[in-house]
Amino acid sequence: MKPLLVLGATGFIGRHVASRAGDREVVTTSRRPGAADLRLDLLDGDALREALRVVRPHAVINCAGAVAGSVSCLVEGNVTTVATLAEVVGDTRVVHLGSSAEYGRVTEGVPITERDEPQPVGAYGVTKLAGTALARRLPNGVVLRVFNPFGPGSPRTSLMGEVATQLGSGETEIRTGDLGAVRDYVDVRDVADAAIAAAEAEVTGVLNIGSGTATLSRDLVTDLVSLVPGRTLAEVRSGSERSAAVPWHRADITAATAALGWKPLYPRTASVGDLWRSWCEEEGC
Predict the structure, then answer these.
(1) 103 catalytic, yes or no?
(2) Cα 278 versus chain centre, distance
(3) CA distances from 198 to 185, 253, 256, 257 (A)
(4) pLDDT band at 284, cuts 50/70/90?
(5) Rounded to the nearest 5°, which phi and psi values hold at 50?
(6) Cβ neighbours of residue 125 closer than 8 Å, sequence gap 6 or more
(7) Distance between CA atoms of 118 and 104, rounded to whole angstroms?
(8) Of 103, 124, 185, 266, which is the active-site residue?
(9) Residue 240's pLDDT is what?
(10) Which superkingdom (predicted)?
(11) Which of 115, 203, 223, 241 is the most buried (most CB within 10 A)?
């Protein structure tokens, strides 16, 4: 059986995709030397073409991308790399990870379907939508629009990673921005399972990948803070502009369930608990 080629395999989602492939052979890539099976700059079309020739993958799962930085960095990470892949991949199966940020502001209380028109409100969402447009032109490609992933290994730069870092530092008051936004938080392991399922499925277009549940960010953070006795939560600053501009998101995952035979398995409490345990194992508690 041909292997899966995981691009961006040292990132948050990519690590979980690589680790959850079961008996499938996986070849991983990263820009950092020694961090994966192959060192690969996704802006280098010749190098990517050669990697595809050598690996001969059954499918490419593109977990690479930029979540922050200047507009030029976001364009490079979320658009140019996808354009490079599109130029060299041919008819190889491609699973590209998009983002719920592509949808932007939506009608509150109405789950988002793939038929809803994307209206991103910031540079990140705009660049992810452009990458999605390129990926949708591939003859054998599918885009998974991932909502808000969290769980074991959450990056320090993410909301839950930042809170875990404060908890681990011994701070008694956990300080955050405004937590009034409602989001569809989905366990990163469920996202990884969806990506692997999509590599095997004969489906194209766009599929929403989320929990199908709307969760107040404050409730999610409170779940984590409550795991450490004696800690209190204080929302001491404004939230991000993106959160303020997009107050509510919830995915309709009906299409993904039907197309992939997939559904999210991890309840919120398990995801939060496993996040904290993984942080303690890596950092010490």
Answers:
(1) no
(2) 18
(3) 20, 14, 9, 11
(4) confident
(5) -65, -40
(6) 99, 101, 102, 103, 104, 118, 242
(7) 7
(8) 124
(9) 64
(10) Bacteria
(11) 223
pLDDT in tens, 220-253: 999 999 999 999 999 987 766 666 689 999 999 9
pLDDT digits (tens, 9 = 90+) for 20-67: 999 999 999 999 999 999 999 999 999 999 999 999 999 999 999 999
CA 256 to chain centroid, in Å, comes to: 16
What CATH number does domain 4-283 carry, 3.40.50.720, 1.10.3210.10, 3.30.470.10, 3.30.830.10?
3.40.50.720
Give the distance between the most distant pair of CA atoms in the chain.
56
Q: Which two tokens stand for residue 224?
A: 């984590």
DSSP helix/strand/coil, 232: strand
Mean pLDDT of the chain: 96
Q: What is d(CA 164, CA 227) in angstroms, rounded to the nearest whole number?
A: 10
Tokens of 198: 């999509």
153 contacts: CB under 8 Å, gap ≥ 6: 12, 15, 16, 188, 275, 278, 282
Distance of alpha carbon 166 from alpha carbon 255, whole angstroms: 38
Check residues 244 and 144 and name the one with the higher pLDDT: 144
